[in-house]
């Protein structure tokens, strides 16, 4: 029976899904797969019977084959070559005074290409650097500029929470994160508190955003006044974890209501007095001049 395999080509890379085909593959095995860049060796990190949510059946391709001892030796040699290329490339960057930072080096399994990942504040003219690398390694060279988030994902770091960054541990793709999320989650807008190691907004702000959006749909707008069974009240704040709404009445007293109690307070509010009605005339007569 064919299974769906989640495969990583690098420790910090995304998980790609393939079919096991006629091969018997277990979790933790190495496999060879045919990619757009060429033949590559990946590590099986997941074995599933069903499709993941973000994959489509027509996109899945079978693995090429299981690796041999020679393939594993080639993998070790490529890893060593990548470390050597990393040191050589850094020397070339310093010699040519290029405003760029080398992050990582990837050598394809068949050595048909070597990819150098780097960050830079702007565009870099690295044509001479490419010539130096081609002359040294006699293969195709690709210099790929990445962002600071991908840099943190590749290198790894310890976040403010004391754990390894989410992007390094399990994130496959970066979701958009905005300052609006921090505001809706009632966080202090201190850049040092809501920013990650990469200097961008924390990725984890997007993890609970859906819960906050669903909770806010059931809550009134903060700062607005409402007529309720308690009289006219002003909404002070909302609390997702307690699922409560804090309001201030006309007497200056603060009340904390659950979402259900708030709904009941709105439903049981007194009916508005229409002008010209008996109730309006009675209220007018009782009003001191």
From TrEMBL:
GO CC annotations on file: cytoplasm
InterPro entries xref list: PSP1-like, PSP1_C
Domain PSP1 C-terminal: from-to ranges: 61-146
Superkingdom of origin: Bacteria
Region (Disordered): 266-289
Protein name per its UniProtKB record: Putative PSP1-like protein
Species assigned in the record: Solidesulfovibrio magneticus str. Maddingley MBC34
């Amino acid at each position: 029976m064919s299974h769906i395999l989640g495969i990583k080509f690098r420790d910090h890379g995304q998980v790609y899904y393939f079919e096991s085909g006629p091969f018997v593959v277990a979790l933790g095995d190495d496999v060879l797969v045919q990619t757009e860049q060429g033949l590559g060796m990946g590590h099986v990190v997941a074995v599933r019977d069903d499709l993941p949510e973000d994959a489509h059946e027509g996109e899945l391709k079978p693995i090429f084959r299981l690796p041999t001892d020679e393939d594993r030796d080639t993998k070790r040699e490529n890893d060593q070559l990548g470390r050597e290329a990393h040191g050589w490339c850094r020397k070339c960057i310093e010699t040519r005074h290029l405003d760029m930072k080398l992050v990582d080096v990837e050598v394809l399994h068949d050595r048909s290409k070597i990819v150098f990942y780097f960050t830079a504040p702007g565009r870099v003219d690295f044509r001479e650097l490419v010539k130096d690398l081609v002359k040294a390694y006699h293969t195709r060279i690709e210099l790929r500029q990445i962002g600071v988030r991908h840099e943190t994902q590749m290198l790894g770091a310890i976040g403010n929470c004391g754990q390894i960054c989410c992007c390094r541990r399990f994130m496959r793709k970066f979701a958009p994160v905005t300052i609006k999320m921090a505001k809706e989650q009632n966080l202090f807008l201190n850049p040092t508190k809501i920013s990650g190691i990469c200097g961008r907004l924390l990725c984890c702000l997007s993890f609970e955003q859906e819960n906050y959006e669903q909770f806010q749909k059931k809550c009134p707008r903060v700062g607005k006044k409402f007529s309720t069974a308690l009289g006219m009240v002003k909404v002070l704040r909302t609390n997702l974890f307690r699922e409560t709404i804090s309001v201030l009445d006309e007497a200056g007293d603060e009340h904390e209501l659950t979402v259900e109690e708030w709904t009941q307070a709105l439903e049981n509010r007194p009916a508005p007095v229409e002008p010209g009605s008996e109730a309006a005339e009675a209220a007018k007569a009782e009003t001191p001049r």
